[in-house]
Write a structure and sequence with these properties.
By secondary structure, this protein is an alpha/beta fold. About 20% of the residues lie in helices and about 30% in strands. It folds into 2 domains: about 260 residues, Rossmann fold; about 90 residues, Immunoglobulin-like. The protein is elongated, with a radius of gyration of 26 Å.
Length: about 375
């Protein structure tokens, strides 16, 4: 069943002012991100909760000041999302909001806060109409409309001294107590003053796509889960940092900048962690004696107690407070463990054994 999450995706590829060259990637990247959001193994978002705003193709013949999408096009969709089309804010404290932006962009030179905006399609070099994704994400956090917010700014962050972020024009709502618990995870395509890039992607039939979105979607699909099966923001960050040189190939590009929520990481999704069968031969384990398994961080991972001398089953208690029965066959336990190193210890300290999951049998 899809999660009760929401998303607004915006991609601008055509601009009224020839000073902004057309882009090929934004509409394709919006479509790919939309597809990931729909995937039950990905974002798992209800399709009716996703709004996509992209440049029409071909570009309409309208007054340059009305070239869509404009700031108003985005703000009206944002307002509709947070109010449900009514006049009052609808709160989704247990849900996540995805805000995705792709197009030409900038940040303010004198503003040291991590931020970015994309130019609206009707922007010009002297009328810098823009949609400041960071300000909308911060507003949603201060108002505590959602429990989690994921902001992706796939745009350049040219440090501009004469351009300013357009305000949201939303009411000044501040739920200070609740807002402290709202988690805001931000991904910027480049550091302050850096350039985002789009290129032909060989594995996508050489179609032009953004490097960041391409790498991010790969991270969502291939980043390994932790020992609890979670793919967290920190794991996504590490995957992107490690994969970035390979994504760029022979042509370097400014790396993305990623901010983990200071009040705790977020989990994008869970999947069963690959587990390896580990055999433990029982020779010194006595009835009533507690056996503990510690992971490579020296944290308790699982424990079990032999109920009786001739027991054929033992209850394995995982550290996450779940349990499962494990049979004893010919004096041997087989326990499924994620890849890694472990320490097996009798609570009395009489015997300890270091081992690698899936490796040689352990003698106890």
């Amino acid at each position: 069943m899809p999660r009760d999450d929401y998303a607004i995706l915006m991609g601008i590829s055509h601009y009224a002012d020839p000073g902004f060259p057309p882009l090929e990637g934004p509409p394709r990247d919006v479509a790919r991100f939309h597809q990931w959001l729909l995937d039950p193994q990905g974002g798992d978002v209800d399709p009716t909760h996703i709004t996509s705003i992209v440049s029409p193709t071909p570009p309409p013949q309208v007054d340059p000041d009305q070239t869509p999408p404009t700031f108003v096009d985005f703000q009206s969709k944002f307002k509709q999302l947070i109010t449900g089309g009514g006049s009052n804010i609808q709160y989704h404290s247990d849900s996540r909001l995805y805000l995705y932006f792709s197009g030409h962009g900038f940040c303010e030179y004198q503003n040291d806060m991590p931020h970015a905006a994309i130019y609206a399609a009707n922007a010009s070099r002297w009328a810098h109409y823009n949609i400041a994704g960071t300000l909308f994400a911060l507003w949603a956090k201060k108002a505590a409309v959602f429990g989690e917010i994921v902001l992706v700014m796939d745009c350049c962050r040219d440090a501009e001294a004469t351009k300013t972020l357009s305000p949201t024009f939303l009411p000044a709502v501040a739920n200070l107590g609740t807002a402290r618990d709202v988690k805001l995870f931000c991904i910027y395509a480049a550091p302050k003053g850096g350039k985002a890039q789009e290129r032909p992607i060989p594995e996508l039939n050489n179609q032009v796509h953004s490097l960041l979105t391409h790498a991010l979607l790969a991270a969502f699909r291939h980043a390994p889960p932790d020992e609890k099966g979670r793919v967290t923001g920190q794991i996504i960050k590490g995957y992107l940092e490690d994969a970035w040189p390979g994504v760029c190939g022979d042509i370097p590009a400014d790396p993305p900048e990623i901010y983990i929520p200071p009040n705790g990481d977020i989990t994008f999704f869970r999947q069963p962690a690959a587990r390896l069968p580990q055999k433990i031969h029982l020779t010194a384990w006595q009835p009533g004696e507690l056996l503990e398994i510690y992971d490579q961080r020296n944290q308790l991972f699982a424990s079990l107690t032999l109920p009786a001398e001739n027991a054929v089953t033992v209850i394995l208690d995982w550290a996450d407070q779940t349990s499962e029965p494990v049979p004893i066959n010919a004096g041997t336990l087989t326990i499924p463990l994620p890849a890694g190193f472990y320490r097996l210890s009798l609570a009395t300290g009489a015997k300890q054994q270091l081992f690698q999951a899936g490796g040689a049998d352990v003698e106890l």
